[in-house]
Amino acid sequence: MKPYQLPIQAVPLADPHDGPCPGVRAALPTLTAVAIALASSVVLALAGCASSAGIEPAAQLQSPVGLGAAVAAGASITPALAADWWRAFGDAALNDLIERSLADNPGLKVAQARLARAEAAVGGAEANAGPQLNGSLDVSRQRFSGNSIYPPPLGGSVRTLATAQISGSWEIDFFGRNRAAIEAALGTQRAARADAAAARVLLASNVARNYVQLARLIEQRDVAQRSLKQRDDVLSLIKQRVQGGLDTTVEQRQGEGALPESRQQIEALDEQITLTRHALAALTAQAPDAMDGLAPHLASVQGVPLPAAVPADLLGRRADVAAARWRVEAAGSDAQSARAQFYPNINLTAFIGLASIGLDQLVKSGSEQYGAGPALRLPIFDAGRLRANLRGKTADVDAAIESYNGTVIDAVHDVADQIASLRSVERQQAEQVRAQAATESAYDLSTQRYKAGLGNYLTVLNAEGAVLNQRRLAVDLRARWLDSQIALARALGGGYSAGADSVAAAEPQTRLARAAQ
Q1: Span 260-283, pLDDT tens digits
Q2: DSSP H or E run through 350
Q3: pTM for this one?
């Protein structure tokens, strides 16, 4: 990517005292003698011309290091940066789902279609910078005025006019307008390619997160099912104690009321499991019931290493940041093209063909015509149209820079948030393991005391509630840990690499800052 500067100085400028339109005479020595005479006459006759002075971008680019990103990140994040980063989680079913979604998802194909459109725009911009050749054939029936410049017998007659001609033109891009337009189209194309990569990363992470969510719900259902069995066993014990006169019907009603509550929780979890399976089916472009048999487990999904800090080269590994950067480049080149419109437009034109009055005369000797020469056009007064256009393009540069700044801020904070969440969840998991061990022990003791007639059923219910909460919490924490791992892989770029088109990760803020100077 070529750095751009605003304002543009595409060619050496003439002495500002030479005339009202600086830059005109710098290009003229390369023209023919006729062009020199024509251009000199035009320039000397001018009392003034349109000026782009005073229109510059105001936005400033922010550095990710200034936002808290570390200078180096180390090798611990490598697994999260592989192109197929999801394979680091070690689950074959997850791999198959993501690969299917990347092949068939309509949203991803929309992004690819936008990329194809941007590539076509590059071809159009490149074509505008090259020589143009056109052919024409015109035949018309015309009555010539008898009172005009045409003498009899042509005047007052109706004749056929015929012209067969090939014409060509080539705009000499002295001031870089076409080059800037090509750079703007290339920037847009590269941004579209980065957008497609960002859509790919987002799609893969959504599939992975829904997969983990499905595993969490299934394990929560297992916990609820075990709870239902425990409560059913305790109810049987209560009934035996009521028959033996050791308990009253109050305890029996409490035990019976616990069963519908467990079944309701199971039904609610079944609903969420079904909806999550439908979501995965939609992400992989399949029928809603295609995932009915999918039953992943959290234990089968492995974790990935945790980086020690937010990496400073984050810009080189996030497709959305790369896309924003390319949009700044494209907007800057677009502004360059708008600024170049203040300078002369120089064309070389030529034509050769046949023309005649009377179609039968077209191919006869003497009907040939040809010509060639330069053409120079310079804006003098346009009621502010060019300045308004340049102000709009400059505002686009400011908007692109601020959009880039916002994307960088979000990217750095996104990674920092995921790292903070992962560390917190790991500490919570350590505490939860100890808490669950204590509640399981308390539940066992309360159940034994109740069976021995040394405790009441309320104590058992309280202990059971604490155990169920800890079991659910263990599942939730494991799922949150994996979900944060996936979110971190996405935040670190998800394996995005722009290849030869990318700007060096250590340079973007320096390169882009030139646009605002």
Answers
A1: 888 888 899 999 999 999 999 999
A2: strand 345-357
A3: 0.71
